[in-house]
Model the fold of this input.
Amino acid sequence: MPEARTLTHPGPIAAERITTVPCAASRQRVTLKAGYTLLQAMTDAVGEVGAWFDLDDIRVDTLTFVRPAPAPGDGHVAWYSAQTVLTDAIILKGGAHLGRRDGSVAKFPAV
Done:
């Protein structure tokens, strides 16, 4: 059996281990607008709320994505691969979470 690994997060320890807030969800079907980035189309579709999207059979001109990957050193608990870029692609089945922070769409750092 392999030896257990311990991962240490490099940031400060949170004062509260678990934070919960009340929320509600409803299921809605939306059509994403063509001609926009996927992020912009999802943001436009739901307005000022966060959302989960089931993405099925979506044709895209360019699909750029990353995958979980081993960190290049010991300083990171989580890491992502280099970008993969596909052209004229179809997302057969996928999912995406659109989050909000301080009233704005959560931005992911460029890889």
Observations:
- The mean pLDDT is 83.
